[in-house]
Structures are given as structure tokens and as C-alpha cells.
């Protein structure tokens, strides 16, 4: 496809997003050329960050997320003296997509961080009770920080996979 055709397609997509997508769907393909039931390629690399207590880099299609875990000791909450803390956070910086601008975290990043917290805690993949060092006195706080370095869709799944892999990579 020529540069002119690519520009025309991009303009059409911005002006008529619904029609643009419907044309692809009528041909049973996605806008990236995959058939509807095709999976994105997945690559996971653990232990990528030597300064973190656990880390992972995940590529899901063209979306790339890097995640690091840092552990600290803290006092537990009074009503949960036998449970530690899991604090996931997703950063969607301007460098990952033209969709994002420099500045404070976007609403999308905040909502995704909340959803990731809900899924990680509800799944029981890491019981908060396993983070207790001494009930009522000390617990572990695991800061699970993820940064999207290339945003091409499906960032929730890529980030969740990176967070789980980084937690599994933690001692």
C-alpha cells in the first residue's frame, strides 16, 4: 500500500471509525489483519530487571509491558493484622502511544490499576495472609509497578500477565 493510501485509510478511520471497523468485520478480519479467532503472539521474559525483587517483560501482539516488584516491611492494618498489602499500579506514559499525553496518570490508567488490584486480590493468586511476617506487628507490602512501553490494545491482559509473572519471579 502506498503512503498516500495509508494516509487516506488513517483519515477515513478517524472520520468514520464505525464504518471502518464494520468493513473489516464484514470480511471476518480484524483491523490489524488477523482473522477474528486468531490470538496475538505472546512472549514472556522474567527476571529482566536486576534491581527489582521480581520482574517480567510481556509482549502481547505489539503491546509491550514491563513490570517490577519491590517489597517493603510495614505495619498491618488494625482490622487485618494477619494480612499484607498488594499494591498494583499501571503507568501509561506518553511514550507508549500518541493517545496519551504527558502529565498526571490518565483516568484509563487509574481504572485499569483498580481493576488489576481487584483481579489479583480476588483470584487468590497471592493470598494476602501469606504476606504476614508477624501478626499485628509486621507484614510485607508488594509494590507491583507496570509500565506500558508500547500500547497497541489489550493492555489489561498484557499487564495482568506481566504482574503475575513478576510476582511468580519474586522470592
What does this structure look like?
With 171 residues, the chain is of the alpha+beta class. Helices cover 32% and strands 27% of the residues. It contains 4 helices and 6 strands; from the N terminus they run ααββββαββα. The chain has helices at 3-15, 17-26, 107-123, 155-168; strands at 42-46, 54-60, 63-74, 85-91, 132-134, 138-150. Strands 1, 2, 3, 4, 5 and 6 form a 6-stranded mixed beta sheet that branches. Strand 2 (54-60) and strand 3 form a beta hairpin. Helix 1 crosses helix 2 (17-26). The radius of gyration is 20 Å and the shape is elongated.
Give a short synopsis of this structure:
The chain has helices spanning 3-15, 17-26, 107-123, 155-168, and strands spanning 42-46, 54-60, 63-74, 85-91, 132-134, 138-150.
Any key phrases for this structure?
about 25% strand, about 170 residues, six-stranded mixed sheet, alpha+beta
- Radius of gyration over C-alpha positions, nearest whole angstrom: 20 Å
Number of strands: 6
Percent of residues in helices comes to 25-40%
Largest sheet: 6 strands, mixed
Poorly predicted spans = none
Number of helices: 4
Q: Whole-number average pLDDT?
A: 92
Any chance you could write out the topology, listing elements then pairs?
Blueprint (H helix, E strand, L loop, with lengths): L2 H13 L1 H10 L15 E5 L7 E7 L2 E12 L10 E7 L15 H17 L8 E3 L3 E13 L4 H14 L3
Parallel strand pairs: 4-6
Antiparallel strand pairs: 1-2, 2-3, 3-6, 5-6
Helix pairs in contact: 1-2
Amino acid at each position: 500500500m502506498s503512503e498516500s493510501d495509508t494516509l487516506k485509510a488513517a483519515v477515513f478511520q478517524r472520520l468514520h471509525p464505525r464504518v471502518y471497523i464494520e468493513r473489516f468485520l464484514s470480511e471476518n478480519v480484524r483491523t490489524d489483519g488477523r482473522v477474528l479467532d486468531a490470538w496475538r503472539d505472546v512472549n514472556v521474559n522474567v527476571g529482566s530487571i536486576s534491581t527489582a525483587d521480581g520482574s517480567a517483560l510481556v509482549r502481547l501482539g505489539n503491546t509491550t509491558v514491563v513490570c517490577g516488584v519491590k517489597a517493603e516491611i510495614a505495619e498491618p492494618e488494625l482490622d487485618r493484622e494477619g494480612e499484607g498489602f498488594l499494591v498494583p499500579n499501571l503507568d501509561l506514559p506518553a511514550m507508549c502511544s500518541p493517545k496519551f499525553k504527558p502529565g498526571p496518570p490518565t483516568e484509563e490508567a487509574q481504572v485499569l490499576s483498580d481493576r488489576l488490584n481487584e483481579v489479583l486480590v480476588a483470584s487468590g493468586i497471592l493470598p494476602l495472609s501469606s504476606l504476614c511476617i508477624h501478626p499485628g506487628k509486621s507484614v510485607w507490602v508488594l509494590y507491583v509497578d507496570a509500565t506500558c512501553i508500547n500500547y497497541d490494545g489489550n493492555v489489561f491482559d498484557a499487564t495482568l500477565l506481566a504482574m503475575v509473572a513478576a510476582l511468580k519471579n519474586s522470592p
